[in-house]
Amino acid sequence: MELSLLFEDDHYVAVNKPAGMMVHRSSIAMDDEPVYAMQTLRDQLGLKVYPLHRIDRPTSGILWFAKYAEAVPAFQEQFIQKDIKKYYLAVVRGYTKEEAALIDHPLRKKLKKEFQDAQTEYLRLGQIEIPYESSPRHSTSRYSLVRAYPLTGRMHQIRRHFAHERNYIIGDNTHGDNRQNSFFRMHFKMHHMLLHSWQNELNHPITGEPIKVKAPLPDYFNQMLEEFSWSHLI
Q1: pLDDT tens digits for 23-32?
Q2: From 56, 104, 172, 219, the catalytic residue
Q3: Active-site residue flag, 56
Q4: 7 DSSP β-pair partners
Q5: Residue 33 pLDDT more than 80?
Q6: Taking the chain, what is the end-to-end CA distance rounded to the nearest angstrom?
């Protein structure tokens, strides 16, 4: 397969990573033949590439690489200084408590060690109540479309923060709501996590030019936007 290129110059390249693809080789891969974005892009471009960050395997969207080792530190410094704006789209269970809010909730490092500060801003773009029972407690079901902006970069941060709010991301099999995931599989034939790295804004680390990159949504995500009449909101 080939990755969709969202940005490319002599220094960096951004791709639209499909859900299910790992960034690079890892001991956490449980299947026999996982697909790696770094190897796929290397073969596609015919040169060695260097991953600049990671996004979770079930998350789709923007993923950045450097084309040579010396270009790595300048880009990663922008992550450290929080100079890169990273916007995600997600479909979550229920209505969010606020239309716009900051989730400021520490998270354990690697899910088991010491706590680290973690902050995620969000904006609710849409909400819907559908006349279907996804829980025996209610005869209808409510969902929200949110744009999330992580201010820190902790493991599974967006997923864990919305789980803390009890607005579980649909399709999240690790931190989500299994009843909701089953409902979406049965009712909508939805077998993916509805979290997408959608838009990045930054100044080019080498040239200083402003860059805005947007990753088109996967077909299955667009399907849910159409189902819930949210397509016009993004």
Answers
A1: 865 555 555 5
A2: 56
A3: yes
A4: 14
A5: no
A6: 28
